[in-house]
Amino acid sequence: MLWLRLRLGLATVALAALFLPLLAATHLYASKPNSKIARNVLESKTEGYCSPSGPIEATNCAYETIETLNKDLFPALDSLVREPFFRHYKVDLYKECPFWRENGLCMNRACGVETIDEADVPEKWRSAALSAVVTTDMNEGVNGCYFRDDDFCFIEDDATPEGQYIDLIENPERFTGYAGDSAHNVWRAIYQENCFGLSESVIAAARDGKLAPGRSRPAMGLNPLQAGHAPQDADLCEEKKLYYRLISGMHASISIHIAADYLNQTTGEWGPNLDCFVSRVASYPDRLSNVYFNAVLLLRAVSRAAPYFRAYDIGITPRGREDECTRAQRAADARTRTAFDGVLTLAEGLAKGFDEEQFFAGADGPVLIEQFKGAFRNVSAIMDCVGCDKCRLWGKLQVSGFGTALKILFALQDKDLDPRVNPNLLQRSEVVALYNTLHRVTESLHAVDEFRQIYARTQKEEAEAAPKRAAKRAAERDARRRAERERELGPRIRAAVAAVLEAVRRHCRDCVKAVKGLLGGSAPKGEL
């Protein structure tokens, strides 16, 4: 009996020894790891999400046409805007905000603008040379600024004592850290300046000749559009949609510049920021589409005025002097003219991309055009509310550039663009603003292409690194589960061992003594 109880007890211990690891294994490995490759936010979007194709809305041009043209246009413009005529821009950065109190201070060093002395700009643009310039009659507008009837925005004037010369190449548009209520107030006000809802009385007044063109002072805040969201009303007139596309495209283009030249505040290095591009632009297809739209509109303005621009004086050589310095300046002027003509030729290749005659053509056209001018003039005034000097600089320049394009397309007749009839039709600041704005838009499209390449590289790297990361995550997960199960099973294992020992004690009370006696040869025979 003792031997039977001994064998039963040993079997119980053996079964327990076999069962406990299996029990633990069952709990530890009940669920297998389930790993997936981490996906970029763009990857889950539909095909063509960040690579639009087909016709650009409200144009006679396709996305692919602009992208192909931009391969030549952006390098040509990037070279042109580095020439003295196009890189020096006079602007007044210290006007007061006419709409709300703005302290105009940005404590971030990146917000600052480096001005240049007048002695460092070409002699033709200095005060002494420009003092004899006679300006045309103007009408008073918002905040004491002055507008000619054809102007869509306030024009910076090289001949005025106000303002400072800026070297645009030395003050590039990039991330400055400017944000908060001040920036939000600016964009909110800009998007609200789309008041084109015409009342019968206004239309009647216009038809009766009682609405003076160029003298309107529109109110702020009518029919606001939400910033960053396309208008959903299918009944909106094309002129109102045009305004929205212009502003949205300009906003998106600025956001692309910020993302493309972003300050890594950890490393202190400047470079592209894919996450910033995704969150500000790529996640909103209409914003990206409007950048393309603006490129088409600007190119149409340049091509329409190409005969005028070919006769425009973009040289820096002073008249009536011949020396070594002026000979060098003439060589530089020839280089600038060649680059300028190259850009004009590229623009003329897309001359039919935008049809300006489809806008402001109905019975309400004269009223709509004046309201459009008033809204865009207010936008130029709102730029004086920007609290970051560098942001204000590029905001004012680009609003002026778009204003010049709108003026060429909607306020001037073909005969007005004849350089023999109107040699002084556009001021130098308008020409500089127009071509730098076109450069900004083409650089945005170039940056979009670079972001696509960055995204493709990150996807490839992600796919290559995924197996190792998945294996590492699985191992870490298994280790965590094993540790958790061991913590959970510890009390159970101790209880099971105690139960086994108790079973052995009950079934084989004298087992230890019997085994000892058996091993020592002294066990009683009756017990075996």
From TrEMBL:
<dbReference type="GO" id="GO:0015035">
    <property type="term" value="F:protein-disulfide reductase activity"/>
</dbReference>
<comment type="subunit">
    <text>May function both as a monomer and a homodimer.</text>
</comment>
<keyword id="KW-0249">Electron transport</keyword>
<dbReference type="Pfam" id="PF04137">
    <property type="entry name" value="ERO1"/>
</dbReference>
<feature type="signal peptide">
    <location>
        <begin position="1"/>
        <end position="24"/>
    </location>
</feature>
<keyword id="KW-0813">Transport</keyword>
<dbReference type="InterPro" id="IPR007266">
    <property type="entry name" value="Ero1"/>
</dbReference>
<feature type="active site">
    <location>
        <position position="391"/>
    </location>
</feature>
<dbReference type="GO" id="GO:0016972">
    <property type="term" value="F:thiol oxidase activity"/>
</dbReference>
<keyword id="KW-0274">FAD</keyword>
<feature type="disulfide bond">
    <location>
        <begin position="145"/>
        <end position="153"/>
    </location>
</feature>
<dbReference type="GO" id="GO:0034975">
    <property type="term" value="P:protein folding in endoplasmic reticulum"/>
</dbReference>
<feature type="active site" description="Nucleophile">
    <location>
        <position position="388"/>
    </location>
</feature>
<feature type="binding site">
    <location>
        <position position="251"/>
    </location>
    <ligand>
        <name>FAD</name>
    </ligand>
</feature>
<feature type="binding site">
    <location>
        <position position="280"/>
    </location>
    <ligand>
        <name>FAD</name>
    </ligand>
</feature>
<keyword id="KW-0285">Flavoprotein</keyword>
<dbReference type="InterPro" id="IPR037192">
    <property type="entry name" value="ERO1-like_sf"/>
</dbReference>
<feature type="binding site">
    <location>
        <position position="176"/>
    </location>
    <ligand>
        <name>FAD</name>
    </ligand>
</feature>
<feature type="binding site">
    <location>
        <position position="174"/>
    </location>
    <ligand>
        <name>FAD</name>
    </ligand>
</feature>
<keyword id="KW-0325">Glycoprotein</keyword>
<feature type="binding site">
    <location>
        <position position="248"/>
    </location>
    <ligand>
        <name>FAD</name>
    </ligand>
</feature>
<keyword id="KW-1015">Disulfide bond</keyword>
<protein>
    <recommendedName>
        <fullName>Endoplasmic oxidoreductin</fullName>
    </recommendedName>
</protein>
<feature type="disulfide bond" description="Redox-active">
    <location>
        <begin position="388"/>
        <end position="391"/>
    </location>
</feature>
<feature type="binding site">
    <location>
        <position position="187"/>
    </location>
    <ligand>
        <name>FAD</name>
    </ligand>
</feature>
<comment type="similarity">
    <text>Belongs to the EROs family.</text>
</comment>
<feature type="region of interest" description="Disordered">
    <location>
        <begin position="462"/>
        <end position="486"/>
    </location>
</feature>
<dbReference type="GO" id="GO:0071949">
    <property type="term" value="F:FAD binding"/>
</dbReference>
<keyword id="KW-0256">Endoplasmic reticulum</keyword>
<keyword id="KW-0732">Signal</keyword>
<dbReference type="GO" id="GO:0005789">
    <property type="term" value="C:endoplasmic reticulum membrane"/>
</dbReference>
<feature type="disulfide bond" description="Redox-active">
    <location>
        <begin position="106"/>
        <end position="111"/>
    </location>
</feature>
<keyword id="KW-0560">Oxidoreductase</keyword>
<keyword id="KW-0472">Membrane</keyword>
<keyword id="KW-0676">Redox-active center</keyword>
